[in-house]
């Protein structure tokens, strides 16, 4: 089921947590930031919206790193109900797409809840003070390949954050599959 996150709540503070990464190490979210900010991307392995944009996210993360924006990706889906999103499959997904940033497993879903993540992909762009400045889409594509010349909303917004500390006032929310929440015990 497709879900839309709410619009950006400018100035909302990032939340730190320590989670296991597909590289076999534990990572703190705040340690993933660059000197000019941090992009936190809630993704998963099986969502067609993520599959459509993942290579552009990898490209954007590499280019953002060069201007001082760090990136971290987090999978919070219920892997028991959706085995495609298991930790082992996260490792394969990251390797297949050449992730240059940590891909972390939020098994208990506490980080997704703390961020108010709604869908995959759901992007949170923070400035160097770790205050939210962008919560929007990667670009105008949905589950399709982006046509040549498509504006790079996420990249352009985060470049602006790196340069000025502020995101654009006009932002278009991402769209994606709803986060697969675990049933309450």
Automatic annotation (TrEMBL):
Q: Domain named Thioredoxin: which ranges?
A: 8-163
InterPro entries in UniProt: AhpC/TSA, PRX-like1, Thioredoxin-like_sf, Thioredoxin_domain
| Coiled coil, from the record | none
Q: Which Pfam families match?
A: AhpC-TSA (PF00578)
Position of the signal peptide: none
Give TM regions. none
Cross-referenced CDD domains, in alphabetical order? PRX_like1 (cd02969)
Query: Highest taxon of the source?
Result: Bacteria
Q: Which PANTHER family would you find in this protein's record? A: OS07G0260300 PROTEIN, THIOREDOXIN-DEPENDENT PEROXIREDOXIN
Report the protein name in the record: Thioredoxin family protein
UniProt lineage: Bacteria, Pseudomonadati, Pseudomonadota, Alphaproteobacteria, Hyphomicrobiales
């Amino acid at each position: 089921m497709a879900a839309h996150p709410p619009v950006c709540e400018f100035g909302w503070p990032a939340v730190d947590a320590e989670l296991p990464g597909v590289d076999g190490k534990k990572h703190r979210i705040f340690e993933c930031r660059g000197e000019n900010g941090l992009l936190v991307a809630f993704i998963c392995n099986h969502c067609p919206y993520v599959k459509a944009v993942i290579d552009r996210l990898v490209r954007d993360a590499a280019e953002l790193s060069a201007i001082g924006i760090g990136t971290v990706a987090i999978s919070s889906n219920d892997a028991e109900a959706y085995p495609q999103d298991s930790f082992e499959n996260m490792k394969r997904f990251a390797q297949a797409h050449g992730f240059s940033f940590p891909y972390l497993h939020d098994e208990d879903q506490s980080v997704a809840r703390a961020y108010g993540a709604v869908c995959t992909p759901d992007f949170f762009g923070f400035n160097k003070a770790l205050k939210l400045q962008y919560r929007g889409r990667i670009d105008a594509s949905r589950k399709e390949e982006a046509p040549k010349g498509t504006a790079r909303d996420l990249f352009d917004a985060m470049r602006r954050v790196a340069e000025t500390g502020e995101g654009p006032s006009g932002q278009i929310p991402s769209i994606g599959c709803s986060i697969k929440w675990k049933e309450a015990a």
